Amino acid sequence: MRHPKLLALGLASLLLAAFARDAAYRSFTAPFPGHSQLIFGNDRLQDIAFLSAGFRRLAADAAWIQYLQFLGVREFGRGGYATPEELAGGVMYPGLMRRTLRIVRLDPWFRQAYLYGASIFAWSEATKSPENAIALLEEGIRYDPDYWMYKTFLAAIAYRERDQFAKMAGILEEALRNPDCPAMIKSILANFYKTEKRYADALRIWEGLIRDERAPEYHERAAGEIVRLRAALRGK
Amino acid sequence: MTAPILAIAGYTVKEHVRNRVFQLVYLFMAVLVAGALVVSALAQDQRLRMMMDAGLAGMELIALIGILFVTVNLVREESESRSIYLLLSRPIERWQYIVGRYLGTLSAVGAGIVLMTLVHAASLLFFGWRPDALYAAALLCAFGKIAVMGGLALFLSLATTSTPSATAFTLFLWILGHFSGEIRFLVEKSTNPFVTALGWGVGAAAPDFAFFNIRDFMDAATMPGPEWYAWLAVYTLGYTAATLFLSSWIFSQREF
Are residues A100 and A112 in the same domain? Predict the structure, then answer.
């Protein structure tokens, strides 16, 4: 055997690398949920492929796009995003909690997914499950305890459940000032104001939404609401 | 000692820059960036995040393909064309040849990563991104991963008998490296000392890529401190050095 020193140096370097690896793990380990906590739905092969390649956050992004497409299907049953078993249940958005958890278990710091999901569960007439919204936000707080928007949403949900709508509106107004606030929350608050005949407040929010370049899906609706609200204000 | 290494590295860089496969790979990156721009529009107000993630992942994948397909043929091609005899007839140590070829390949891929970063960063800036240190950290970690993979591919190309087997083993280790957390979990849970030792050995021999995926926890509430980065650097250098030493040892056993 020639050059045994090279072999010895190779093995010694490998041992050094192993030692450095253990030291790094003792110093910090990324607090991801374990793979056993991941929610694999119909797209398990997609998620596993991304995970195998080390693209965990990208897996969450792909799941997010599929989530938005699923929600965007207005007439349930079209688009192939629900299984036949789910459709047979007669629910508008079947398996929504599972779909939301799929994203946040892949990327526990995907704030928009928590806020968007919680908004739908708490305020959408089609889902109406505040307990899911609370569970989602509590999971978000576990991974991101300093992000105040989760606690803000929890407070708003709590006031809504107690029919304390004025307090709920106050909390949501505060949330609206944060750039992370989903456009859905703005539309929910605007609709609430309209129901309460607070047309000027509703108009203010819709005018903000129509100028928001990050929420083009709300522009058409905002344009219609602005016309109606201005007419309502003139009628007053 | 370094002059032959740098000379070999220099001609390796020139060789790769002229390589059509290399050029096609980087053209593909431009296509990937354009694709990311289109797909990210579906992500509503998470467009910037989507572009960031798709771009970083794309760059890493392109660099992996580049270094993998070039490195597995690095020594084999020169051996088969007999041009290696010319090199080895010079006063060059075999380890210098291996290190020079590796450094040249890594430099060429690194230059490609820099080019891709410029394109990626320009597209992000266009959509209102503000540069931060984590982006640079994510890129450096991706480069570290590529450096480790390059060393591994070179070692396996010399240790195995064919290009497809070297490629297959390298890709297998790439995938295994992303499940290092699961290997550690199994080792910790095992009560059998033999299984524990075997698991630790496999974990040590296989690359551990969980470290390098800092882009996956860029938004985490707690980020690693400087100590972690230092250990990551030691790990990268140690593992790469191990693959180069072992490659040099295998190469030194060969009769030409």
Answer: no
- Best mutation target among B32, B45, B202 (most A Cβ atoms within 10 Å) is B45
A67 in the same domain as A119: no
- CB count within 10 Å of CB A172 equals 23
The percent of residues above 70 in pLDDT, for chain B, comes to 97
| 66-105 in chain B: CB under 8 A from chain A | 95
State residue B77's pLDDT score.
Answer: 78
Res A180 pLDDT > 90: no
Quote the domain boundaries for residue A226: 182-236
- What ipTM was estimated for this complex? 0.87
Q: Which of A52, A58, A144 sits opposite B178 (nearest CB)?
A: A52
- The answer on A98 and A74 residing in a single domain is yes
Residue A28 lies in a domain: no
Residues of the domain holding B181:
2-253
CB A137 within 8 A of CB A153: yes
Inside any domain, residue A140: yes
Whether residue B180 contacts residue B210, with contact meaning beta carbons closer than 8 Å, is answered with yes
In a domain, A21, yes or no: no
Q: Which two three-digit tokens encode residue B219?
A: 């938004």
Residues A171 and A116 in one domain: yes
Count of A-B CB contacts under 8 Å:
156
Q: Which residues of A92-130 are buried (b: 16+ CB within 10 A; e: fewer)?
A: ebbbbbebbbbbbbbbbbbbbbbbbbbbbbbbbeebeeb
CA–CA gap between residue B49 and residue B52 (Å, rounded) = 5
> pLDDT per residue over A69-120, tens digit each?
888 764 444 445 566 666 566 666 778 899 999 999 999 999 999 999 998 8
Residue for token pair 């290399």: B22
Whether residues A172 and A117 fall in one domain: yes
What is the average pLDDT score of chain A? 85
Give the per-residue pLDDT at B189: 85
